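Lab manual, section 2.4: Encoding a predicted structure.

Procedure: take the sequence of the chain (133 residues), apply the prediction step described in section 2.3, and record the output as structure tokens. A sample record is shown.
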Amino acid sequence: MLVGIAIYSILRDNAPVGALIGNRIYPNVATRRAEFPFAVYQVTGDEPTDTKDGVSPLDENAISVMCFSKTYEEASDIADAVRTALDRVNGTYSGVVVQGIQFLSYNEDFDVKDADDGVYVKSLNFRVRLINN
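Recorded output:
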């Protein structure tokens, strides 16, 4: 449940990501007025480790990070920076203990808003292992 806080912290503090999107990193959804380019992260699942006598000591979270841009090249650059920032990372971020992050998959899309305008979307999927305190 705290995985989003860690993901935001990692991406916000990563210089290559910051150079491309600044602090335009949003949980779940960006407003219609969000300035391009930007990223949106979503927690898509949580699998706790079952124990007999207490709260799960380790959770595996599924997350997606979507990178939005007006150009294909820029969306690709952002996706590459996000993957590099997150893949195989571990440590404590904003008080959340991350045992490890694994890149799982990637897909892309083009969202057509009207005949003359559209947005390139690169979506990256990760597994995040959190140690619960």
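Check your result against the sample. The mean pLDDT is 92.
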